[in-house]
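FIELD: query
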Amino acid sequence: MLVVVAFVACLGLAWWQWTRFESTDGTGQNLGYALQWPAFAAFVVYAYRRFVVLESDPEEVAKLDPATRGATEIRPDVLPPRPAARTGAVDKVDEVDDDASPEDRAHAEYNRYLSELARRDAR
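FIELD: result
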């Protein structure tokens, strides 16, 4: 019953928006809504039908279960490689080449500043 009411309401709203579009102050927005409401009505019917099928057919429910499909493995070449872990003293990590960008230089300077603060707190 709810599906019928929702279907009729959507079609009624589509008709109302169509009449608003045809009026003298109608806009393209009214036309857009007039075309969208029938799609909503169709979706209500589709969703109800799908619900009924899933309630009555266990094979359809089994198709949706991720366990029956198995795990999906991601190929190693899909994701970019992780950066290698940096090792060494804190001062060597912050060294920057002469041709580094200004952002890299600022980042290295900030890291040196944080390292100095950490050393002061350790004393």
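FIELD: remark
The helical segments are 2-22, 28-56, 58-64, 66-69, 90-93, 102-122.
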